[in-house]
Amino acid sequence: MNGIGFLIVICFLITFGPPVLLFVMGMVRRNRNQDSAKIVFIVAAVWLIVGGGICASILG
């Protein structure tokens, strides 16, 4: 996995890693504070959209 394969793996980790982590964090916060959880879910969705677009443009 030299060169382009490594780049693709890094782009997928940047795109899907933080939103998954934020989603789990939002699920934990959902029991205590629903307003805070909504904000975390929105940040996760925005990260997924923006990060996916940036990584797709790098690979394309």
State the gist of this model.
88% of the residues lie in helices and 0% in strands.
Explain this structure to me?
The chain has 60 residues and is mainly α. It has one domain. Helix content is 88%, strand content 0%. The protein contains 2 helices and no strands. The protein is elongated, with a radius of gyration of 14 Å. The model has no long low-confidence stretch (mean pLDDT 85).
Task: Decide which structural class fits the backbone.
Answer: mainly alpha
Low-confidence stretches: none
Query: Taking all residues together, what is the mean pLDDT?
Result: 85
Helicity, as a percent range: over 70%
Keywords: Membrane, Transmembrane, Transmembrane helix
Transmembrane segments: 6-27, 39-59
Keywords:
about 60 residues, mainly alpha, 2 helices, about 0% strand
Write the layout of secondary structure elements.
Layout: H1 4-30, H2 34-59
Helix pairs in contact: 1-2
